[in-house]
Amino acid sequence: MSQNDDYARHMETLDRDLGRMSNIELASSYVSRPLVGPGVAFVFILFAALAALLIFGQTSNTFVVVIAAGFGAYMALNIGANDVANNMGPAVGANALTMGGAIAIAAIFESAGALIAGGDVVSTIAKGIVSPASMGTPTVFIWAMMAALLSSALWVNMATWVGAPVSTTHSVVGGVMGAGIASAGFAAVSWGTMGAIAASWVISPVLGGVVAAGFLWFIKARIIYRDDKIAAARVWVPVLVGIMGGTFAVYIALKGLKQLIKIDLPIALLIGAVFGLLIWLLMIPVIRRQARGLENRNKSLKILFGIPLVVSAALLSFAHGANDVANAVGPLAAIVQASKAGDVTQAVQIPLWVMLIGAFGISFGLFLFGPKLIRVVGSQITKLNPMRAYCVALSAAITVIVASWLGLPVSSTHIAVGAVFGVGFFREWDAERRLRKARESVPDRPVVSPEERRRRKLVRRSHFMTIIAAWIITVPAAAVLSAIIFYAITAIAG
Known about the structure:
Blueprint: H1 3-56, H2 62-82, H3 85-93, H4 99-117, H5 123-128, H6 138-162, H7 168-184, H8 191-224, H9 229-256, H10 265-291, H11 298-341, H12 352-380, H13 386-406, H14 412-441, H15 450-455, H16 461-493
């Protein structure tokens, strides 16, 4: 056998071994990829617990605060994974933002909202639902808050896993209620507050859907169904962007900046009117320049709504970070205060280090686990384009303002998802209406079978039913889970 044959055989064996090693590396990569997110999340939770240990110092309650900090970090991660999809989903579904761009913008503005305008006195989270005095001792109050924090985080995690955007506010409310009942009985719960929250399950999505459908009807009637769409867009798009700008000015003034400066609704509306007028005037030349040379078709209109949609997503994220960070760290802040002062009757303030856990946790959760729910909200409920997504974003802001005026506790999650449903159901109704008119004008037109009409539904019923079911059981599920955890903690603590 020649030396060349030996060399060739050796190289063939080497190629086979390298191929096997390559396959093992690919298999290892495939298996380990799903573990990267949970691994990074676990490191963040450990880091939050370590930070609490270093900052809080050595006291008799240090271990409790360290564990609570880990629970708070876990909750913040879940808020980022689930709740932020409501702000970014429509822009991504409309292709106005890439998934990476949406995550980057949301991470920046969520953190900015939490750190600049967050830190709300979490009286409702810690005290509005259950009377702390009814729990007897600060220790019982601490166990109840820990149970509420862990149960709400577990519930939101489960909802994210099944692809259902749920209200993190309602999850925390359910957790606090369940722990309160377990520790002090049903009389400890403020049932008036709980009744208002239950009413918001219906009011939030319906109001969001109606407002979004109304704006979509206006856009279709005034722009899309016109013979010269571009000429109509030059007139109405600046008006619509001005309405959006003014609405978000009111929204940020009322909800996003309430920790920096207290602004009443009439003043906020005046600020919104001024901003809206200025933005309308500024957008007239911008839209005219953008509309130059565009073809007279619907696809061209998408260009004109792109930038307003991106800006609205950023502003919604800022306001969300300012408001919903309390869901992650409100119970944690209550635990820190009760551990330090031994008093559960004072107003609960969120320390900076606790706020940082909430802000960074939301950003990490969005980055690691957010894309799944962003896709559900943005494209899997109904197909969105920039005009429809604009209606969803504007509806979310308007509905929160109206609810604040009426004094209704509403969920931003329910509003945003309800607006997506409203847009989808309006499109179904509008398609049916146009089909009937076409059939009346052309009597010989073939009749569409019931099966084909069901196939053409523009809202996916499976997602609709899953989300509605998750909304209905969020508070009771979180409450039951919280009660079980409370009993387990008290049994362990002796």
